[in-house]
């Protein structure tokens, strides 16, 4: 399976914001959810929802809220601050999750990259997403059969960046040399910090050129586009 000319034999890809266009899928799911309940929707309201959602995901990554709390509180907090009444947060979340699973949009270059790497290195999907959403989106996407394994925090009892998440992954893949593994993701808090906690190299996908203001998140590599990964893979390990 692995290609001896590549620096890494095992690639761990984050899903949302790395291979999948989460923002587009989330926008569509929110627009249709709000429409179902005859509630207002706009770019400003979507931004407010994302603010509440991301804050809770960070708490989830830290183990400070449960998955169920995250799902309910993101809508209750959003509705409260937006002044939206008469809509059940639980019903809105159920609608949103169902619609989000239909949004199997890939980011530019994702399919081409994964297709070109199949059979040359081992490919794994590592995500903190909800299993019923992630499996549905993966099944509907062109990458449905592209990975050697899929690891979803919802099924594991751990989430990125927790060391337990990566210990679980490592116990289920054939490669045991962590120097031959690389995690690729767009999140400093889950992907890069997670790779640091696990003792593997990291590649931060940073298309917007944001500054790394997290002193404890150390990026081995930083790229603006997925195709830049080819150059990293072709580098030989130092002796």
Provide the fold topology.
Blueprint (H helix, E strand, L loop, with lengths): L9 E4 L8 H15 L6 H19 L5 H16 L6 H12 L9 H8 L4 E6 L3 H10 L8 E4 H4 L6 H8 L10 E5 L2 H11 L2 E5 L15 E3 L5 H5 L6
Parallel strand pairs: 1-2, 1-4, 2-3, 4-5, 5-6
Helix pairs in contact: 1-4, 2-3, 3-4
Provide a concise account of the structure shown:
By secondary structure, the chain is of the alpha/beta class. Helix content is 45%, strand content 11%. It contains 10 helices and 6 strands; from the N terminus they run E-H-H-H-H-H-E-H-E-H-H-E-H-E-E-H.
Portion in strands: 5-15%
So, CATH architecture of the largest domain?
3-Layer(aba) Sandwich
End-to-end span in angstroms? 23 Å
Portion of residues in helices? 40-55%
Low-pLDDT parts are none
Radius of gyration equals: 18 Å
Mean pLDDT: 93
Could you state the CATH homologous superfamily of the largest domain?
HAD superfamily/HAD-like
User: Quick one: how many beta strands?
Assistant: 6
Structural class: alpha/beta
């Amino acid at each position: 399976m692995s290609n001896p000319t590549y620096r890494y034999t095992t690639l761990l890809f984050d899903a949302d914001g790395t291979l999948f266009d989460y923002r587009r899928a989330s926008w569509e799911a929110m627009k249709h959810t709000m429409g179902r309940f005859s509630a207002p929707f706009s770019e400003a309201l979507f931004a407010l929802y994302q603010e509440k959602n991301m804050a809770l995901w960070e708490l989830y990554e830290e183990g400070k809220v449960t998955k169920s709390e995250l799902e309910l509180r993101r809508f209750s907090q959003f509705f409260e601050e937006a002044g939206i009444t008469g809509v059940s947060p639980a019903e809105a979340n159920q609608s949103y999750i169902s619609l989000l699973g239909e949004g199997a949009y890939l980011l530019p270059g994702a399919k081409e990259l994964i297709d070109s790497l199949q059979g040359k290195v081992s490919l794994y999907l590592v995500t903190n997403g909800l299993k019923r959403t992630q499996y549905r989106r993966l099944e509907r996407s062109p990458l449905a059969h592209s990975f050697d394994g899929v690891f979803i925090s919802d099924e594991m009892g751990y989430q990125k960046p927790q060391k337990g998440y990566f210990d679980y992954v490592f116990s289920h893949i054939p490669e045991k040399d962590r120097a031959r593994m690389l995690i690729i993701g767009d999140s400093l808090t889950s992907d890069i910090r997670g790779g640091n906690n696990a003792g593997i190299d990291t590649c931060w996908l940073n298309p917007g050129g944001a500054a790394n203001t997290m002193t404890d998140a150390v990026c081995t590599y930083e790229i603006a586009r997925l195709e830049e990964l080819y150059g990293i893979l072709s580098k030989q390990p130092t002796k």
